[in-house]
Amino acid sequence: MGLATARAFTESGAAVTLADVDDDALNAATDRLREAGHQVLAVHCDVSDEDQVAAAVRATVEEFGRLDFAYNNAGIQSPTVDAADEPAEAFDRVIGINLRGVWACMKHELAQMRTQGSGAIVNCSSLGGLVGLPGRAAYHAAKHGVIGLTRSADWAPPRKWPPPCCGCAAPARASSSAWPCPSTAATPPADRPPRQGDAHV
Ligand SMILES: NC(=O)c1ccc[n+]([C@@H]2O[C@H](COP(=O)([O-])OP(=O)(O)OC[C@H]3O[C@@H](n4cnc5c(N)ncnc54)[C@H](O)[C@@H]3O)[C@@H](O)[C@H]2O)c1
After folding, report:
1. Which residues are marked as active site?
2. What's the pLDDT score for residue 175?
């Protein structure tokens, strides 16, 4: 879903930063988009490490001059396990990537967008952010948290700058057309499509 989003942005004329912890997938995706003539920066980034997230945003701004849109997609599934048996390490890993990772991304993206005075962010939650299922406590807790983070996105009271446009995608099975993909938006959707020269991470 992250790559599909990046592709859609590049095809709309945006310069894009791909940030991923998987270097092979990152390099393959970067090569494909560049071969198609798109402007792409690749950054190795583990979203559970705030310093790496900060560096990815910094690299984007150094390369493209600004950050107009961000899609925070990185996520992992948790192994199915009864909540009574879940090891703390497994819980911490899922929360570290799926929730703390989104927090770190939003934090550094918002800081840049506050400097610019504009920007838009979409965080990837899940149908699992709206309901609970047995055996998936960590995943559902994290995805519920992503919606809470998104709803709190116009941080900075009293408002000294126009809040960014923040939305939250709540996909069900991405591969199934039988499921609708509802989304909840904490603030109104972006008022314009991406433009040539926009930077997107
Ligand atoms: N596929 C679905 O049916 C579905 C349904 C609901 C929600 N989602 C959510 O959509 C998002 C994307 O899912 P997908 O199915 O495309 O998964 P995917 O595994 O194809 O893509 C996830 C990407 O995140 C990257 N990633 C994993 N850990 C990372 C980390 N620590 N730092 C940086 N990158 C990391 C992976 O390398 C991968 O490229 C996830 O947040 C997922 O929870 C997916």
Report:
1. 139
2. 42
**Ligand 1 atom, smallest distance to 46 CA:** 32
CATH of the domain at 174: 3.40.50.720
28 lines ligand 1 (CB under 6 A): no
- Residue 165 belongs to domain spanning: 71-192
**Residue 20 in domain:** no
Establish if 15 belongs to a structural domain: no
Burial 91-118 (b: 16+ CB within 10 A, else e): bebbbbbbbbbbbbbbebbbebbbeeee
Q: Give yes or no for a contact between 109 and 68, defined as CB atoms under 8 angstroms apart.
A: no
Number of domains in the chain: 1
Does the predicted model carry a pTM greater than 0.85? yes
- For atom 22 of ligand 1, which residue has the closest CA? 74
Query: What are the pLDDT digits (tens) for 153-197?
Result: 765 554 555 555 667 777 765 443 333 333 333 333 334 444 455
